[in-house]
Amino acid sequence: MLPETDELAEVLLDLGVPHQDIDEPVRLSRRVTGDAESRAFLEKAVAELVEDMGEVRGGADVPGLPGASGALARFFPLYVLVGALPHARAHHRKLGVPEEVSRRTLADVGRAVALHRRWQGTGGILSARWLSLHLRGELYQLGRLQFQRSRIDRRTSDSIAAAGLAAGLDDPALSVHVPDFMGPLSRRACDRSLDLARDFFARHHPEEPSSVATCASWLLDPQLKRYLPGDSNIVRFQERFRLGEEPAEPEDMTPVRFVFGTTDVPLERLPRRTVLHRAVLDHLRDGGHWYVRTGWLSL
Q1: What is the pLDDT of residue 5?
Q2: With helix as H, strand as E and coil as C, how does 202-266 read?
Q3: Distance of CA 255 to CAs 125, 165, 189, 283, 293, Å?
Q4: pLDDT of residue 86
């Protein structure tokens, strides 16, 4: 279920796991493979993760190891993902997914390890359920952006209908995600990603013709335009989308977490080096709220 220690280190490198977070999970893996009960639990977790491989179900839960604590508890979901890796690669090969797309998609596992250290200060895996989308064939990295096979929901269906498009509630759609550590969110990079997505999903998932792409993100909060230049990458990204219904509740800490990598530091102690830093902080200081907005664009 898990590779031997030497091979496991190589697999983690292939998944983009930072070098500083390879030794510990490799060493701890012996505590899982050497214990019959833990090994059986791992096998069960992997089997549940890859069940109905390729079906759109919004990911799958990745359980923790019962009784585990400390680093072993933090890294056990990583072992489940590694155990599912051969199934994911076989699924990609069956669909004819190019090797470079498969590799870059699965390397998001390493990004999640880097984010765990950035946000928690320790080794571990962040948002294992999110990563199950990658391992189940529900999400792909295509250039600067990630695209998830999904369905049109009520947050955007009325706006899409008002624009006169034939697509409606529960019809296939592509959900757009903006990963960290991938360089500027430039117009050219986004154009390329959208072109890649149109071709990729028409080729590899023709049974799910998607006429719209949706995005739910703090990056789409139109209040950002008050603070950012009109030619900024974020504003240009916003302008690609038509907004859906307004959210009921604010999510003030969402942009704080993504921009600064933490919500544990008092706002007045966070850096103010960039226009975006100052925008997020000044808006909250002045009594404003930030919202995760949902938008859509025609493909």
Answers
A1: 87
A2: HHHCCCCCCCEEEEEEHHHCHHHHHCCCCCCHHHHHHCCCEECCCCCCCCCHHHHHHHHCCCCCC
A3: 21, 31, 22, 11, 12
A4: 97
Q: Each residue of 49-58: pLDDT tens digit? A: 999 999 999 9
CA dihedral 237, 239, 243, 246 (to 10 degrees): 80
Nearest to 75 by CA among 114, 119, 115, 25: 25
pLDDT of residue 126: 87
pLDDT in tens, 253-287: 999 999 998 899 999 999 999 999 999 999 999 99
What was the pLDDT predicted at 44? 97
Dihedral of the alpha carbons of 2, 4, 5, 9, in degrees to the nearest 10:
-70
b/e string for 176-196 if b means 16 or more Cβ within 10 A? Answer: bbbeeeeeebeeebbeebbeb
List the structure tokens of 55: 């079906």
Cα–Cα distance measured from residue 150 to residue 215, given in angstroms and rounded to the nearest whole number: 11
